[in-house]
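Supplementary notes for students who missed Thursday's class. We covered one full example, reproduced here. Read the sequence, then the structure, then the short commentary at the end.
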Amino acid sequence: MSQLRLNPLTGRWVVIAVDRAARPGDLISPHLPVEADPDRPCPFCPGNEEATPPALETYGKQGQWVVRIVPNRYPAFDGDEPLQVHNLGPVFTQADGSGIHEILVFSPEHGAGWADLDDAQAAVTMAAIRDRLEDHARRSSIRYTQVIVNHGREAGASLVHPHGQLLGIPFVPGEIAEEEAGFRRFEGSCLLCTTLEAEEAADHRIVHADERVIVVCPFWSGTPYETLVLPRNHDVHLTDAAPADVAATGRALRTALARLRGCLGDVAYNVVFHTAPHRHSGPFHWHVHVVPRVTSLAGFEQGTGVMIDIVAPELAARHLRVVG
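Structure (token representation):
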């Protein structure tokens, strides 16, 4: 029998329907090629720096960069203007898409991914993310910055070379507003601090744990092999966290993605960093979601917003631990 499980971060129900996993073709095979013309020069590879706008930040030594941040040549958000809402009619409301859209090239290696980063590369990548968030937070027109990594065509990637994106936007998006509401609804201590303690006590959804970070397939997983990366120390903003915790989160994310690849192959996935909106004081606890793209959203999910997970998170965590 299927189960309904409540995601306390968003207040949404998800469905755990493991019997549906027996249907042929429900789990998608490793992702299709990303680029239409893989033989064209990669704009993110060393030696092709002129193919991108000038770098905003470069990390590395002796003239060899290991991380670059460049403006997105095709920005979804651009401009310094604060959000100005215009009512064009009784049901027509619009605003200019001002903001920031940057590319985080987190490895000079074309065929690498976050799963391939060594400890030092994971740490410098996370330091770059922290630095850019601090820069965005100083701009009064930017209310929230979303950090993402899209891997594979099904997850929205358009280039193979490992990279992420930072999108500074002039409003707080609904997903973050819902998570903030989830923290406020939770009575007692922090929702995710309590989640961390409860998952360790249960001890059958843990994928990775060390002295600074825990990775779990959360009880309320809405998609197969979904994971949640939780720093142990309670910080509202990623930029509030100690450098050691920021670096450890990058390493734990690397471990989670390497185990995902070892378990399912090179599947597409999205990595989503959630931190409190700029200048918000909480309650919140910054964290990272990993959402593999191994099933398709059908009409029920799109019509109701209720996700159906055909692999119980307890089983998914067991699979991910075995390949570690």
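Commentary. The mean pLDDT is 91. The helical segments are 119-137, 174-185, 191-202, 243-264, 299-304, 313-323. If anything here is unclear, bring it to office hours.
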